[in-house]
């Protein structure tokens, strides 16, 4: 299923994201723990990438935000070459300052990126109205494409999201998929997850509340091989 709500309005403009990444207000990326969220997603994604530890090709993080996933990918694949791209020039300027010694960064959209071996797109596609076109373009630029998105998000979607995805979304591209729960990478995050899900599920029936079957961050990772 692909649920596209783009015609209801989309706030994901370059101006919007430049402000979120560069400002210090209450809605900014950093004020809302965006860097930690990127790391959380990256730790789960890297467990599921189907490359050997000695992979020495090029990995591109598409929609890299402030670049915080790249050190995690690099730790797993020390021989690989890394690139990061985002359409927000404000984000890329910060990426260069933070991680310019381990990766090359560029402010590009899907059409502007170079050909690479692997592209990882973490929690980006749900923001993009023309997501099928983006996927097609990215597949023309790589051998393996990994797409992580929220799993089976229900209406009302998050205000920044315009699409929802399930296991069958990319069947037409023969995609493999893996649904998993991002509990966190720090002890307090993992503990909070168990308290919120398993522990509270013990008492929810007492109050006639449905069991919580999702997760704090329930994700699906698609792996699509380029047909070229």
UniProtKB/TrEMBL annotation:
A Pfam family annotated for this UniProt entry: Methyltransf_12
Entry keyword set: Methyltransferase, Transferase
InterPro entries: Methyltransf_12 (IPR013217), SAM-dependent_MTases_sf (IPR029063)
An MF annotation (GO) of this entry: methyltransferase activity
Domain named Methyltransferase type: residues: 60-140
GO BP, sorted A to Z: methylation
Domain of life: Bacteria
Cross-referenced PANTHER family: TRANS-ACONITATE 2-METHYLTRANSFERASE-RELATED (PTHR43861)
The protein's name: Class I SAM-dependent methyltransferase
Species this protein is from: Chitinophaga filiformis
